[in-house]
Amino acid sequence: MPHPLPDLLRFDDGRPVAAPADWEARRAEVARHVVDLQYGRLPPMPAGVRIEILNRSGIRWLPSGVGFVTIRVVTEAPDYAFMLYLTIPAGDGPFPVVLCGDGCWRTMTEAVTREVVKRGYILAQFNRTEIVPDVAAAGKSIGLYRQVPDGEFGALAAWAWGYHRCVDALAQIESADPARIMVIGHSRGGKTTLLAGATDTRIAVTVANCSGCGGTGCYRYQGPDSETLGVIVRNFPHWFSPRLNAYIGREQDLPFDQHFLKALVAPRALLTCQALGDLWANPSGTRITYEAARGLYRFLGAETRIAMRTRRGGHAHTIGDWRAALDFATRQF
Fold it and tell me: Active-site residue 3, yes or no?
């Protein structure tokens, strides 16, 4: 490895984190480094969140009793609204929830929906690009940006904020169990879920699938043909804080690497999914940050709450990935 990773178990002033009870104080330092510098902080927490039920119906191709509910999530100060869609199993709840913001990709297949409902989970879906666009040229004149004109946040932080507001909404749904929420996303959606889980302790299980650079990957260690910091901020400048640009070509000077972001999830459950053929997402670097974060989980006595799934193949969110995530969540719950 060209440069050692920053030490999770050492305070900024050099003192060691001597006991698990010290972690919360160290965690605050870690959050300041990785969240503020990389993502531009999060949008402000709203003064209130309410839900509006717009429609209830069944789904012909799912078993009788399965319900589909369309909800508008409405926030106050900042004033904003977006849609949330629930597929709810038949029977009595409350049910655990799988929350996915990748609705912009239309990748939620019938097979995935059947699998989630069959396991007794609510499938909650939203389109994160309703929060802010995934188009750099759109600038910051639309979406949530318009409501928070002085915000420093990039798109990843805004999308993570969307996950948090969905958690607010789910707490108001009788059939949903707010103590058993899993967030899951793929690629840039996986970057988002990792950030969402790192910054909201109400999320019980975080799953990031093939999230690579800016997600579960590693800045200091680049595997063959993997995406670098310079490439990602050039292609997707709207995802991050502009302050991150200062570290292009000098990643060794970053006060964090992505094991810091994983550490913010601890001691809650975290699953990293990757594919060996997905070289752009840096599977070897992802392994390095996973092992570093696992060391913290071990220190906290929570090693059973962190896992990695590695499969053959390329950059995709397969039904096998979904089944592995559901298996992992069921063990945690």
Answer: no
| Cα–Cα distances in angstroms (integers) from residue 109 to residues 15, 103, 105, 274, 302, in the given order | 50, 11, 11, 20, 33
Query: Into how many domains does the chain fold?
Result: 1
- The sheet with strand 80-88 has its strands ordered as 48-58, 67-76, 80-88, 122-125, 95-100, 176-186, 205-209, 269-275, 306-311
- Cα separation, 62 vs 127, whole angstroms: 22
Answer yes or no: is 116 within a domain: yes
| Preceding peptide of 255 cis, ω within 30° | no
Domain hosting 309: range is 20-49+93-332
For the stretch 268-285, pLDDT in tens is 999 999 999 999 999 999
Contact 187/212 with Cβ under 8 angstroms?
A: yes
Would residue 174 count as lying in a domain? yes
Q: Answer yes or no: 175 catalytic.
A: no
In this prediction, residue 104 has a pLDDT band, given cuts at 50, 70 and 90, of confident
pLDDT digits (tens, 9 = 90+) for 4-38: 999 999 999 999 999 999 999 999 999 999 999 99
**Active-site hit among 33, 175, 284, 315:** 315
- Write the CATH number for 130: 3.40.50.1820
Averaged pLDDT score across all residues of the chain: 96
Q: 50: helix, coil or strand?
A: strand
- Spatial distance between the Cα atoms of 170 and 293, rounded to a whole number of angstroms: 29
Burial 284-293 (b: 16+ CB within 10 A, else e): bbbbbbbebb
Catalytic residue chosen out of the listed positions 164, 187, 211, 238: 187
pTM (2 d.p.): 0.97
In a domain? residue 206: yes
Helical ranges in the chain per DSSP H: 23-31, 37-39, 110-118, 144-147, 155-170, 188-198, 229-235, 258-263, 283-299, 319-332
Report the alpha-carbon distance of residue 186 to residue 169 in Å, rounded.
22
Residue 77 in any domain: the answer is no
- Triad 102, 106, 111: Cα angle to 5°: 100
pLDDT score for 59 = 83
- Distance between CA atoms of 97 and 157, rounded to whole angstroms? 22
